[in-house]
Amino acid sequence: MPNLLKKWVESDKHDIKRLSQLADRVGSYSQEYRNLSDKQLQAKTPELKKRYQNGETLDDLLPEAFAVAREGATRVLGLTPFHVQIMGGIVLHEGNIAEMKTGEGKTLTATMPVYLNALSGKGVHVITVNEYLSKRDATQMGKLYHWLGLSVGVNSSDESPEEKRDAYNADITYSTNGEIGFDYLRDNMVVYKRDRVQRPLNFAIIDEVDSILIDEARTPLIISGQASGSSKLYQQTDAFAKTLKKKTDFKVDLETKTVSLTDKGIAKAEKYFNLKNLYDTDNTALTHHLDEALRANFIMMRDKDYVVQDNQVMIVDSFTGRIMKGRRFSDGLHQAIEAKEGVKIQQESKTMANITYQNLFRMYSKLAGMTGTAKTEADEFREIYNMEVITIPTNKPVMRIDKSDVLYPTLKSKFDAVINEVKKLHHKGQPILLGTVAVETSEYLSQRLDQEHIPHVVLNAKNHAKEASIITNAGHKGAVTIATNMAGRGTDIKLGPGVVERGGLAVIGTERHESRRIDNQLRGRSGRQGDPGFSQFYLSLEDDLMRRFGSDRIKSFLDRMKVSGDDAVIRSRMITKQVESAQKRVEGNNYDSRKQVLRYDDVMRQQREVIYDERFQVIDEDKSLKWVLMPIFKRTIHRIVSLHTQGDPKKWDLQPVLDFAVGALVSPDDISLSDLENKNGQEIEDYLMKFVDQNYQDKQKALYEPSQMLEFEKVVLLRVVDSHWTDHIDAMDQLRQSIGLRGYGQLNPLVEYQREGYQMFEEMIADIDYDVTKLFMKAEIRQNIER
Fold first, then answer.
1. CA–CA separation, 140 vs 686, rounded Å?
2. Does the annotation flag 492 for ligand binding?
3. Interval 392-409: pLDDT, tens
4. CA-CA distance, 350 to 331, in Å (whole number)?
5. What is the C-alpha to C-alpha distance for residues 147 and 705, in angstroms, rounded to an integer?
6. Is 542 within 8 Å of 517 (Cβ atoms)?
7. In the chain, which residues fall in CATH 1.10.3060.10?
8. Where is the Helicase ATP-binding domain (predicted)?
């Protein structure tokens, strides 16, 4: 391990030295460009574009382009990127991750690589975690880009397709990660080329890259349609779940967040639902609903995992504390929670298109990111996304003091200590940021502060609309702010007048998150740009993380130290080490889980690419799709004929071939069994293809205009492909949910999923071929009907 750490540090030093030298070259051009007039500096943009078109690479143009953007920022924004910001910009241009501490000016850093890459004319996407930040950054930085002669677009969820298309066609597009993903999926569902909004995915810079590519990695983007489903079964299984007793009827595994019925629980279920065997294959739907009811009642916590607003269950992002509007838990869990909470159960949906962020962002030709916290996940960024994490030095030394954790036996004693610390700091006017992991904790602390008559503001999933303004004021004298995790991320906390003298911003964490990176984000709220401040975490043995991973060892340590009593407190490096050890275990588990998700999703990715490529070819065609259709007709006929013409010709049963011909190709009057007899397999295929050729010619004559024939061909192909693809997505989801059971049979579930998934895909293609053949051949063309 020490050798690995040494290699890591030396690699960073080498990168920093190289980046610093390249930044010096940018600096030398900057001195030259200071003497240019505004018009001369603005003329650099078309000049650099022309040089790129004439064969120079973006790497060749980097020193000059960065210097143009830097000088432009000085004149337009009144901000000059520091040497370290130029280094960060180079990291982004090279398709890596720049780890820059809070307050180091990531937004300004991005302007240089954004400008450089926009010169290619292929489009640059700047991706943020919410629309507020997209619009804010586009407005602020857009002044610079417009001044330099580049166009800027903002892609938001409330825009029309025309507005979205304009935004994507701009040189620089600001958008959220979700909107990019949904637009990609929608583009692959359109029937007409003109309805697409995106260009090919070229270069993206992701702000808060760890939030999107790590925390959200397992979150699939799903476009759904309505599916048939009954709310009655959710209500029945919920009512049953509420009769169960913990330990007697079911067991909860907090580490894996699973619930399983005991033998007594199974017997209770069989009696309740009047069944002989709960796990009989006939009861699959019931057991699925029951599993979700158990998870809803005994794992999913209100005001932590979800909130209920306006009689609707809304998901809370466990990392940011924000409400994830429009998102629903999958596999019936959302409906199970709705039954638990007694709100209206929404109809289950059927997936029409889906993709994970992992596979979405790997489609970009080049991807980069910036964040204050990424080094702990460096291996994952390298392995999954082929991006290195480079830590950029701060412009000024970090003055913040990170104090050791303090541990209390109970939640009550911990919160009492937190309130006492807040009272002490508030009395001297020092601003305080209280970080919580759950919404319910933030509300509890708010009540306690109200009792102490300490004015404060709460920032959590329930009022995130105000988060930017709340965070902006959090550094003022006497301010007390309670924030769920990293709500308000992306907005700096600047210290108000007289705060430096009072010690800067005090950050108090009321619980450790399961990820060290999230804890580091909270700490990083204090001490921006060389400001003073401190951070400290208050823990208890009853915290989630401690109960799941660390409490037994720590309890034995406390016993040895003879620490007892509810008010006992311990400050020890051993506690911090134990917590970090637990966090590393969770991070390792989560990383393995994300890798496993990616392995499974890669099966769907390959299939998705085949289908989407086919769709694009169909939609892009502007003359005729005969070249697509004829091979489909031939494959279908060959598949049917070859199936029934094997072995001794005397024993062939050609009736199924005749049934196929009558059902899919011709009318019964045009063919009989005798027409197929006394022919070999190839001759039968050739005979049937004559009907196909004739039918195709007849339709061409009936549809006078080639454009009408093309439209007819497109409608047939897209209608059949889309129908089968949505059914296939659903079938693959069901396979994925059940495949884990193969492990009990000593089979590798992933290998089985790949094998069966491929087989199902091949069957789907055969079904598409058959239905396209039948729909095309049997369709009647009627003239003079309004379209």
1. 67
2. yes
3. 999 999 999 999 899 998
4. 10
5. 49
6. no
7. 603-778
8. 87-247
Architecture of domain 603-778: Orthogonal Bundle (1.10)
Dihedral of the alpha carbons of 283, 287, 289, 294, in degrees to the nearest 10? 160
What's the CATH fold of domain 228-347?
Pre-protein croslinking domain of SecA (3.90.1440)
Quick check: 525 and 507 in contact, CB under 8 A? yes
Structure-token pair, residue 483 = 């924030």
Residue 99: phi and psi, rounded to 5, are -90, 110
Sheet holding 172-176, edge to edge: 152-155, 172-176, 124-128, 203-207, 366-371, 97-99, 389-391
**509: annotated binding-site residue?**
no
Going by pLDDT thresholds of 50, 70 and 90, the confidence category of residue 491 is confident
* 424 has a pLDDT exceeding 70: yes
Q: Decide if domain 2-222+358-391 falls under CATH 3.40.50.300.
A: yes
> What whole-number distance in Å separates Cα of residue 150 and Cα of residue 627?
42
- Is position 21 annotated in a ligand binding site? no
Q: Which residues contact 125 (CB under 8 A, 6 or more apart)?
A: 173, 174, 175, 180, 201, 202, 203, 204, 205, 364
Residue with the bigger pLDDT between 308 and 257: it is 308
Kindly report the backbone phi and psi dihedral angles of residue 297, in degrees, each rounded to the nearest multiple of 5, phi listed first. -85, -30
Q: Which of 283, 275, 336, 276 is nearest to 305 (CA)?
A: 336
Judged against a pLDDT cut of 50, whether residue 167 lies above it is answered with yes
For 545-556, b/e burial (b = at least 16 CB within 10 A) is bbebbbbeebee
What is the C-alpha to C-alpha distance for residues 374 and 587, in angstroms, rounded to an integer?
13
Distance, CA of 464 to CA of 469 (rounded, Å): 10
350 neighbors 318 (Cβ within 8 angstroms): no
Res 744: pLDDT: 64
Predicted structure pTM score:
0.81
CATH 3.90.1440.10 domain span(s) along the chain: 228-347
CA distance linking residue 775 with residue 787, whole number of Å: 18
107 is an annotated ligand-binding site residue: yes
In one-letter notation, the amino acid at residue 368 is A
Q: Is 248 annotated as a binding residue?
A: no
Q: DSSP label at 171?
A: S
Architecture of domain 401-580: 3-Layer(aba) Sandwich (3.40)
Q: DSSP states of 194-258 as a string?
A: GG--PPP--EEEEETHHIIIIITTT-EEEEEEE----SHHHHHHHHHHTT--BTTTEEEETTTTE
CA dist 760 and 752 (Å) reads 12
Determine the pLDDT at residue 786. Answer: 41
CA–CA gap between residue 517 and residue 211 (Å, rounded): 10
Q: Is the pLDDT of residue 585 over 90?
A: no
Q: How far apart are CA 293 and CA 238, in angstroms?
A: 5
What length is written for the chain? 787
Buried b (16+ CB within 10 A) or exposed e, 278-294: beeeebeebbbbbbbbb
Q: Is the pLDDT of residue 769 over 50?
A: yes
Q: What angle do CA 317, 318, 322 make, to 5 degrees?
A: 35
**508 within 8 A of 436, measured Cβ to Cβ:** no
The two three-digit tokens of residue 405, written as one number: 């954790």
CA atoms of 599 and 774, how far apart (whole Å): 36
Q: Which residues of 298-311 are buried (b: 16+ CB within 10 A; e: fewer)?
A: bbbeebbbbbeeee
d(CA 392, CA 380): 19
Cβ neighbours around 59 below 10 Å, total: 12
| pLDDT tens-digit readout, 205-237 | 999 999 999 988 888 898 887 665 567 899 999
Report the distance separating Cα 188 and Cα 613, nearest Å. Answer: 9
Span(s) in the chain for CATH 3.40.50.300: 2-222+358-391, 401-580
